[in-house]
Amino acid sequence: MSVQVTREVFDEVMVPNYAPAKIIPVRGAGSRVWDQEGREYVDFAAGIAVSGLGHCHPKLVEALKTQGEQLWHLSNVMTNEPALRLAKKLVAATFAEKIYFCNSGAEANEAALKLARRYAIDTYGAHKTQIIAFTQAFHGRTFFTVSVGGQACYSDGFGPKPGDITHVPYNDLAALEAVISDNTCAVVMEPLQGEGGIISPTDEFAKGVRALCDKHKALLVFDEVQSGMGRTGELFAYMGLGVTPDILTSAKALGGGFPIGAMLTTTAIAAHFKVGTHGSTYGGNPLACAVAEAVLDIINTPQVLAGVKQREQLIRQGLEAINAKYHCFSEVRGKGLLLGAVLNEDFKGRSRDFLLASIDQGLLVLVAGASVVRFAPSLIVPEEDIREGLARFEKAVAQVVGA
């Protein structure tokens, strides 16, 4: 017997930790999606920077179908060809020498935090456990990662939190210098804060963090779950900063919509995850790795990465033109195709109003806190879709401001 699916079914059967929109998308192609009623939307959200190559990219569909007829799953008692091919390509393309696969950004960050502590304790002693992170950061929803993330609204209310975690303001090198010491095992940062409001680090800050980590023999962990896989116009954002981390985490766009996460590091650090110290049932799943290999092959090309920067300029110009008419943004910030339109004092706290109005006008956008409208479209979104999406966003802005 078929079950009729409506938005009301969510309220009947799902845990209420989400508040999804009234529409239910059922089909996607490129940077367009269609809902149950057949209405079309331009997608400037990409599943929160996940669908980096849009919906149903033919090369990804082909990779999934081909692997789906060969091998779906093995435990990590054995390895598999797609995982090894993907790992070799990630090593060749980055600073990393060793790769760990898992299922999500939270799991990748959980692994990174555990490895950082294990490395420090093994190498320097039991005193070296402090983790320093930044306010308004976001590193996932496991209890460890949500505690390291600098937003109390996500971590409060669940009882005692993991200890020896310190938070300082982002882009404040003096604040970091005041708390880092030889007891610090790691500094964890996003090279472009996403959920915290689309905030870029200054060059001085990024290089200063690296220098302080070196001084105190602490590992620098870059959370590139959202900023990585071409999102900033480089394969990973660290490449544009000129700062190399010791551990890097990836997920979201790595699988183009298929769940996969990865932790990248050096041989010397990786050696401290000996057999049995950490694991993941689905980590390195052949289906996920086959799709991710296809994603990496497409994104890590000069054409796609240069195209990200070109598309950034088109969207920035469009947002600035809209703002010249409606005067609702104080600035547009971010890099590549991770951009945030910051609401000015007249509209502060109303980012969700812009999101809902955009849906009304046939556009999918995101928020990054209560006062930033976030844009994270496909890295290969056609210029025609950019123009159409911006036209729809202008109608949404007019709807909100009452013009």
Architecture overview:
The protein is α/β, with parallel strands linked by helices and 403 residues long. Helices cover 40% and strands 17% of the residues. The protein has 15 helices and 15 strands. It has helices at 7-13, 46-49, 58-68, 81-93, 105-124, 143-148, 152-155, 173-179, 203-215, 238-241, 267-270, 286-299, 302-326, 351-360, 383-401; strands at 25-29, 32-35, 40-43, 98-102, 130-134, 165-168, 184-189, 219-223, 247-250, 261-265, 329-335, 338-343, 363-364, 366-367, 372-375. The strands form 3 sheets. The chain has a 7-stranded mixed β-sheet with strand order 4-10-9-8-7-5-6, sandwiched between helices. It has a 4-stranded mixed β-sheet with strand order 1-2-3-13. A 4-stranded antiparallel β-sheet has the order 11-12-15-14. Helix 3 (58-68) packs antiparallel against helix 12 (286-299). The termini are far apart.
Number of helices: 15
Q: Report the biggest beta sheet as strand number plus sense, adding barrel if it closes.
A: 7 strands, mixed
Distance between the termini: 49 Å
Give the % helix: 25-40%
Average of per-residue pLDDT values: 96
Poorly predicted segments: none
* Oligomeric nature of the chains: single chain
What fraction strand?
Answer: 15-25%
Structural class: alpha/beta
Number of strands: 15
Q: Order of helices and strands, N to C?
A: HEEEHHHEHEHHEHEHEHEEHHHEEHEEEH
Spatial order of the strands forming the largest sheet: 4-10-9-8-7-5-6
Radius of gyration: 21 Å
What would the principal axes of the Cα set say about the shape?
globular
